[in-house]
Design a protein that fits this description.
Elements (H helix, E strand, L loop, with lengths): L1 H20 L7 H9 L4 H35 L11 H14 L8 H23 L3 H25 L3 H11 L8 H28 L3 H5 L5 H23 L5 H9 L11 H21 L8 H25 L1
C-alpha cells in the first residue's frame, strides 16, 4: 500500500512538471531563466499563472472524481458505478446551465455555486431515498431516473434558450475543461476534496463490510445507516465540486478505482486514497495530451476522456459479464 502511494505520488509530480513545462509556447533557455528569476516576466506569467493552476485544477478535479468513483463502487457493490450513476453530475450540470443562461456567469463564483447547490440537492434527494429504501439496486434506479430528468431539463434549456451565445457557453461548459482556470478555482475545489476524503475515510468500515454482503453488513454491529450516509455525502460533495469547477468529465471516476483495486486486493476501504491519486494523475496526463494534440482548436477535456474512457468502459463491462457467467 505505501509503495503504491509513493509510486502514484512520484508519477503525479512527474506529470505535473511536464504539464507546467510543456505547452503551445516552447521556451528558450533565457525564457526559462526569466520565468524563475523574474515573477513579473511573460514566461513567469505563463508558467505560474496559466499552466500551474491548470495542472493543479486537473489534479484536484481528477482526485475528486477518482475518490467519488471508489466510494460509489463500494457503496453499490457494482464495478461499473461512477460519480454520474446517481445523477449528482447531471443535476450539478443543470444548475450551472441555468446560471449561465440566466446571465449569472458574469458574476465570479455564480456558476460554481449553482452547480454545488445542484449537487447538494441531488445528494439530499438520494439521502432521503436511501433512508427509506436500503437496496443498492433501487438506489441505482432512482439515480438513473434523477440523471435522466436532469439531462432532459438541460436539453430543454438548449431548446428554449433565447441567446445562441448562452447556448454555446452552456455547451462549452458541459463538455468539461480546465482551460483558463486560476488559483481561485484551485481554492474552490481543494477544501471540498479534503472534506470528501475525510467523510470517505469515516465511511470506509461500512464499505468494507458491504463487500461481504448485505446480510453480513446488517449483522456486523456497525451503524450502517450512518456509514451509508457518510459515503453518499462524500461522493456527492466530491462530484459536485468537480463539476462546479471543470464541467462534466466522464470515465475518470469509473477507471481510476479499477487501475489500483487489484494492488490493494480489492479492499473497498484501502482503495479510496489510491483511487483519488490515480484519478488526479489520469486527469493531469489527459489534459496534457489534450493540449499537445495537434488540432486547430484545443480538445475539450471531457471529450478527450470520453474518447479514451469509452473503450475502457466496454472492456470492464466485458470482464464483469464473464465473471457473472462464471
Amino acid at each position: 500500500m505505501n509503495r503504491l502511494l509513493w509510486v502514484l505520488g512520484l508519477l503525479i509530480i512527474a506529470a505535473a512538471v511536464a504539464g507546467i513545462g510543456l505547452g503551445e509556447s516552447v521556451f528558450q533557455a533565457g525564457q526559462w531563466q526569466a520565468a524563475f528569476a523574474n515573477p513579473t516576466s511573460g514566461p513567469a506569467e505563463v508558467l505560474w499563472q496559466v499552466r500551474a493552476p491548470r495542472v493543479a485544477t486537473a489534479l484536484m478535479v481528477g482526485a475528486a472524481l477518482g475518490l467519488a468513483g471508489a466510494v460509489m463502487q463500494g457503496l453499490l457493490r457494482n464495478p461499473l458505478a461512477d460519480p454520474g450513476v446517481l445523477g449528482v453530475s447531471a443535476v450539478a450540470a443543470l444548475g450551472a446551465a441555468l446560471a449561465i443562461v440566466a446571465g449569472a456567469g458574469a458574476f465570479p463564483g455564480a456558476v460554481e455555486t449553482t452547480a454545488l447547490v445542484g449537487a447538494g440537492l441531488a445528494g439530499g434527494l438520494l439521502i432521503l431515498f436511501s433512508a427509506r429504501v436500503r437496496s443498492p439496486e433501487a438506489l441505482i434506479l432512482f439515480g438513473v431516473a434523477l440523471s435522466s430528468f436532469a439531462g432532459a431539463a438541460t436539453a430543454l434549456i438548449f431548446n428554449l434558450s433565447p441567446s445562441p451565445i448562452a447556448t454555446a457557453e452552456v455547451m462549452s461548459w458541459l463538455l468539461g475543461s480546465v482551460q483558463n482556470r486560476s488559483w481561485i478555482d484551485v481554492a474552490w475545489v481543494t477544501p471540498a476534496v479534503v472534506m470528501s476524503a475525510v467523510l470517505a475515510a469515516m465511511a470506509a468500515p461500512g464499505l468494507r463490510m458491504l463487500s461481504l454482503g448485505e446480510e453480513t453488513a446488517r449483522t456486523s454491529g456497525l451503524p450502517m445507516a450512518r456509514l451509508r450516509l457518510l459515503a453518499l455525502l462524500a461522493a456527492a460533495l466530491a462530484t459536485g465540486a468537480a463539476v462546479a469547477v471543470a464541467g462534466v468529465i466522464g470515465f475518470v471516476g469509473l477507471a481510476a478505482p479499477h487501475l489500483v483495486r487489484t494492488l490493494v486486493r480489492g479492499d473497498p476501504g484501502r482503495v479510496l486514497l489510491p483511487s483519488a491519486l490515480a484519478g488526479g494523475l489520469m486527469l493531469v496526463v489527459a489534459d496534457l495530451l489534450a493540449r499537445m494534440t495537434p488540432t486547430d482548436q484545443e480538445l475539450k477535456l471531457g471529450v478527450f476522456t470520453a474518447l479514451v474512457g469509452a473503450p475502457l468502459f466496454a472492456l470492464i463491462a466485458w470482464r464483469a459479464a464473464r465473471e457473472w457467467r462464471l
